[in-house]
Amino acid sequence: METGRKHHFTPALHVLAFILNLLPVVGAEQETENLSGLSTDPNKDIFVVRENGTTCLMAEFAAKFIVAYDARASNYVDLITEQADISIPRSAKVRGKCGRNESELQISWADGAYSFKLYFVQEVRNISTRQEHFWKVSKVQFVYDLSESTHFKDAANLGRHTATSRHLSLFVTPLGKSYKCEAQETISLISSDHQKVVAILLFQIHIQPFSIKRDFIFSEASACIVDQQEELEETLPLILGLTLGLIIVVILSVYHIHHKLTATSQIQIPSDQSEYKHM
Predict the structure, then answer these.
(1) What is the mean pLDDT of the chain?
(2) pTM listed for this prediction
């Protein structure tokens, strides 16, 4: 997101920031903002975590949560499997934490009935003779309450349930860059509700949890493989067309030059003997 934004702090927050600067071991001041209202896409959300007045985590994406749950049939005896499609509203609350090697983003809405949490970590990988620093999503968690009747009709197992996927390695990105992917990414989680599956669909993703150099501005983007393939598929016909056109032009040029040289090198023999008198 390229738009800057001014922030006005109360005197108390200025004093707190001054104290935190004097005592860094106590911890850094962190604030969060839901800037989804600035998005021109009604389905796309924007979340920011700031530390000491500087952006330390940014996330833009559109999300849909597909939750399978048991519901009572019309006879109130049998159970049937239903599916709820849930989206993040513009009024969602956001919390976050920025650390040296670990960061978190938590989004909640409907008075805490739903909570979506992303965990980010840094890691080092040995590539050939050098070490490369990366960041990735290591864990995803979605908490939902089947007592919330807006999305869950006649749910059988009322109460809060947690769907979690651990030991992930998603959105692996070189440190200092942001991750960007227009294509849809699907994350499958296993729920505490009788091992039901919860599918999280993310698209139009742009995330950076570490090393943001400028306030409210993503660093250079690292595109996902799907986007790279789609871009190649779009440009490949153009490249092939230009190459074929160039080959045709070269062939015609060579033919024209060869034909011209051949024509000028031929000896014109007069067909009428009377013409020899003038030679």
Answers:
(1) 82
(2) 0.72
Q: 86 - beta bridge partners?
A: 65
H/E run at residue 107: strand 102-109
Q: What is the pLDDT of residue 76?
A: 80
**Nearest Cα to Cα of residue 42 among 63, 66, 65:** 63
| DSSP-H helix ranges across the chain | 11-22, 225-265
Residue 60's alpha-carbon distances to 6, 190, 206, in angstroms, are 20, 25, 5
Which two structure tokens, joined as six digits, stand for 58?
A: 């940014």
How far apart are the C-alpha atoms of 120 and 184, rounded to whole Å?
20
Distances (CA, A) of 32 to 13, 51, 69, 194: 14, 9, 32, 34
**DSSP SS3 for 87:** strand
3-class secondary structure, 138: strand
DSSP labels, 155-192: BSS-SEEEEEE-S--EEEEETTSEEEE-S-EEEEEEET
- Per-residue confidence (pLDDT) for residue 120, from 0 to 100: 97
pLDDT in tens, 6-55: 444 344 434 434 443 444 433 456 899 999 998 888 889 999 999 988 99
